[in-house]
Specification:
This protein is mostly helical and about 80 residues long. Helix content is about 50%, strand content about 5%.
Amino acid sequence: MDNYTDRITMEPGKRGGKPCIRGLRITVYDVLGYLAAGMSVEEIVEDFPELERQDILAALAYAADREHRAVSSEAA
């Protein structure tokens, strides 16, 4: 998923302004933590029915983009 901007939102008053999934109170960090703990996309969606598969992919794309930008800025 190249364009995650329609699924990842940041609101100053919600979860401390951290990037969240579609304005929900579930952060990108939460999703990445579930994946790192070994949960599958299907398990996450089952446990959090307000999430969709595309939300999980958007969280991964967001994290990959942030990592790419961090590495690119370090190399400059």
